[in-house]
Amino acid sequence: VNTVTVGRENSQPIELYVEDLGSGPPVVLLHGWPLDGRSWEPQIHALLAAGHRVINYDRRGFGRSSRPAAGYDFDTLAADLDTVLTELDVHDATLVGFSLGTGELSRYIGTHGTERLAGCVFIESLAPSFVKSVDNPGGVDEAGVAGVQEAIPLHRRAGAPAPRRAPRRPLRRDRGRPARHVRHARGRGQPRAALVSARAGPGNGRRRVARHADATMFEAFAEQAVETPRGRVAVRMAALGHERFAVAGHDRGGRVAYRMALDHPETVAAVAALDVVPTGEVWARADAGLAMLYWHWAFLAQPAPLPERLIAAAPARSSTSTCAGSGSAPRRGGTRWSS
Amino acid sequence: VRRLGLGAAAGRYPLELMTAYRRLLDDASTVEAICEDYRAGATIDREHDDADRGRRRIECPVLVLWSARSALPRLYDDVFGVWRPWAREVRGRGLDAGHFLAEDEPETAAHELTALLDRLPTHVTEV
Question: How far is A25 from chain B, CA to nearest CA, in Å?
Answer without folding.
Answer: 37
